[in-house]
Structure prediction request, 343 residues.
Amino acid sequence: MSAIAFPRHRVVLLQDLASRVLERRVLRCDGETLARDLLSGFFDVCMGAGLDSVLAGLEQAFPPLELGDGASLAEEPRLRGALVEKLGNMVDFNHGGPRNAKPRQLANCLIEILTLTLSDEPDRTLTLPDDVHGDVTAALAGIVDVELAVPQIRIAIVAMARRMCDARYHDAFDQIAAQLDDRGMRMIRQPKVPLDAVQAVQRALFDARNAVIGKAANAAIDRAKQVLATADADAAARVDLPITHSLTPRDVAIIRACDARVPKTPAAVVRSLFDSLSELAHLAWRPPDRPVRPYVASQTFAIGDCVEHPKFGRGSVLTSMAQRIEVEFAEGKHTLVHARPSK
Prediction:
């Protein structure tokens, strides 16, 4: 069986997954349950990092496995069985050994049974000016602030979910919808409706929320891509180029924005989209250029000022007290005099 490449710097995601599983399983649980949680979570980790090439590799290594969701990976008998055996007596995670070591142990178990080989990725970072950072953020916000504003977001979710819901549950749907908060994200009070109706309505609401968030995110990314294109064509192209297999930074950014852990406020969604696009498209942002002031003892300097000294060269002011400043230059720190700040 050939090994499947997994980025070394992404191992921390597997450790985070293991930590979450351990937090949920505060009581002793059997190895089968633990293995299912880890395998299902591994699928989500790969989708949330654009590592669908890893999932494709697992399908090839374990035919006729088809990974449509996390459940299909969790129920694969060969992998689940191997993980249960590997975990062995580790099913009781409340005793024995430092707790902070256990997520790493679980991550290593996953890596071994999935035949993953840790690899180092080449640096593909593309650095863009800080003003583009601001323009991209503004472009994202220009769409998201409108589409996900109150009460627009609630109206859109309720309307879409009702269309998705079977007509026989419409009465129950209307009762539940009346109890949704101002963003349509959670019920303020649980109405008395049959359990099957609650489940059907909740499924429709879940799908509608993702559709509404996804639509807004997709439109916002279109706008941001236009901004990137004016600054750097390569940066814009990366938004829709596959990361490792077929998922693109756009696809994964939308998946992340829909994640239940991201608050569905405009600001939180914009931040999620921006961070995702920057990370997945390997975009870095050059800090704004600071004006350089020639050092003159008769002037006043503040922390963060960039100064040019005739002997020490260019440096940054670290501290500013009374008539002394400490400046860090390439050769080291020097204390200089300056004028007392006016009150």
